[in-house]
Amino acid sequence: MKKIYLFFLILSSTLIAQNKVKVDLSNPSSTIYTHLYFLQPDSYEPVKAAQTIYGVEGEKAEEIAIKLKQILDGKGLKVDFTKVPKDKMHSDTSNFKKKYQYVLFPYQMPQIYVEKIGDNWYYSSETIGQVNAIYNSIYPWYTNKLQQIIPDIGHYSILNIELWQYLGLLTLLTLSVLVFYILRKVVFYILRKIQFLIIKKSNERINITLKKLARPIVLLLLIQFIKWQLPSLLLPLNLNTFLFLSFNIMATVFWIYVFLKLVKVIMGIYEDFVESTHSKLDDQLVPILDNFLVGLVIFFGFLKVLTLFGIEPVTVIAGASIGGIAVALASQDTVKNLIGTIMIFVDKPFHIGDWIEAGIVAGTVETVGFRSTTVRAADTSVYQIPNSTLSEMVVNNKGLRAFRRYTTNLGLRYDTPPELIDAFVKGVRKIVELHPDTRDDAFNVEFAGFGDSSLLILLNVYFVELDWNKEQASKHSLHIAVLKLAAELGVDFAFPSTTVMIEQFPEKKGLPMDYNIEENRIKNIIDSINKKK
Which residues have CB under 8 Å from 481's CB, separation 6+? Predict the structure, then answer.
């Protein structure tokens, strides 16, 4: 009894093994698996594979099924069945016209997809109608003729690769090296022409950058050429998948390199431009903009590399967006400072080297960074002001003044005769007019009023030198000239004092001042100012 039971068990296992894979069109996964399985070398039954083709029968259906597999093999597109849906009612939410469909490779080959027709899934009519066009775009015209002229020895296989395929790879590599040295000079010549069309001039730094830029551009062209020729070698799917992934990664890296060099070229042109402007703030923008663009290129290049390893671009973008929001929330102050930096460079409330007053801080602007602005005070201490705060403050930019205004009061003694007051005012006016560092068309020197201890002479002038140190030197020379005039006229400056009038003792008198108000003497002193200048 046990032997009979064992016999039937072995017989049933054998029958199950023989019928393990059947034609199954019930869902997207089964249809695609049926198509590919029955076109494998050890299970080659194109008649069964052709049953996945709807509306076409016989040899025509077999030809379409075979070409579909060759298209996927030629592009190195390997189906990951763990991601293919097994739901017979699978719905594609991205397509509103055809609800029940599944695209095998939506980003690499969106033309090939299966759809639900009746109770089964088949390759779509649009896919079937485009098979020949897709096949001809992937395989060069000489692919079939090449197979006919290869001798039998060329089909000898080593590590699952035939000899003629090794020879083809070697020929393709040799041809690429030769073309590289030719195209490098051509591409560099074209880049130079484009450069002269844009800026009409050149320098050694830009030329070096263009030479470095020409190499990756040529390599990108060669990679595209190799990817175009690679399907004609009919390499195994696994090898094609590896080669295409490698070439795509190389192309992405080269594109990153190209954009980084383009950033250098653009920043070189921009740097030449800002050197011709008077604003030093533009010079400060060069390194900031350079770092920002470099970071942007590397970030998007990294996202592109992630998609090459099978991560959906939508997932990558969504992850980057969520990550960006998380980073923004975690570093609100940094984001605020970055926005403040942008506002400073857009509005340009000050330039590098300007003397500004912002709140309690007063000093010279030295640098404007991503996060903060450096201001050096008169005592050489350094203030770091966050750009978000600085962009919201009232900034008094004294560096933008056309002139430096200087106002003071000259206090004369109360017993100064009116004649000498008038002569002193006229003399100071002459000094201001003839002073090399003051405006002679805008100033005020007037007897302004009566102070607590002196007669007030208003001195309001404008210095043409904007530098703080030069302004102090100009004040020095102006003050010395005023003191000399006062000494020659015999005019004294008052000290803070209090005068007590004693009316009950008329014999007590104050010390009389000996003022010389001779008219000719005063006139000669005023006229001598012109001669001194």
Answer: 431, 435
CA-nearest of 242, 249, 262 to 302 is: 249
Cα dihedral sign, 139-144-150-154: positive
HSE-up of residue 5 (Cα within 13 Å, Cβ side): 2
Round to whole Å and give the CA distance between 470 and 372.
29
* Cβ 224 vs Cβ 176: under 8 Å: no
What's the pTM?
0.59
Q: Where are the alpha helices (DSSP H) in 372-467?
A: 387-390, 418-434
* CATH entry 3.30.70.100 includes domain 404-532: yes
Dihedral angle computed from the Cα positions of residues 347, 348, 349 and 353, in that order, rounded to the nearest 10 degrees: 170
State both tokens at 433: 């007019």
Coil vs helix vs strand at 104: strand
Q: Whole-angstrom Cα distance, residue 147 to residue 195?
A: 47
Measured at the alpha carbon of residue 473, what is the angle toward residues 470 and 477, in degrees to the nearest 5? 140
Q: How far apart are the first and last CA of the chain?
A: 138
Q: What DSSP assignment string belongs to 490-505?
A: T--BPPS------TT-
- The Cα–Cα gap between 262 and 102 comes to 40
Q: Which residue is it, tokens 């560092």?
A: 437
Q: Domain 338-400 carries which CATH code?
A: 2.30.30.60
Are 411 and 451 a contacting pair, CB within 8 Å?
yes
Q: By 3-state DSSP, what share of the chain in percent is helix, strand and coil, each rounded to 5?
A: 60, 15, 30
- Per DSSP, the three-state class of 447 is strand
- Distance (Å, rounded) from C-alpha 214 to C-alpha 227? 20
Per-residue pLDDT of the chain (533 residues; tens, 9 = 90+): 444 544 444 444 444 444 467 889 999 999 999 999 999 988 899 999 999 998 888 889 999 999 999 999 988 888 888 889 988 888 876 655 567 889 888 888 888 999 999 889 999 889 998 999 999 888 888 877 777 788 878 778 888 888 888 888 898 889 988 988 888 888 888 888 887 777 666 667 777 777 888 888 888 899 998 888 888 888 888 888 898 888 989 999 888 988 888 888 777 777 777 666 666 556 666 777 777 788 888 888 888 887 777 676 666 566 555 555 655 554 566 667 667 777 777 777 777 777 788 888 888 888 887 778 888 887 888 888 888 888 778 888 776 677 888 899 988 988 888 888 888 988 889 988 888 888 888 888 898 888 888 899 999 998 887 777 788 888 999 999 999 888 888 888 887 766 555 555 555 555 556 677 777 777 777 777 766 65
CB 192 within 8 A of CB 201: no
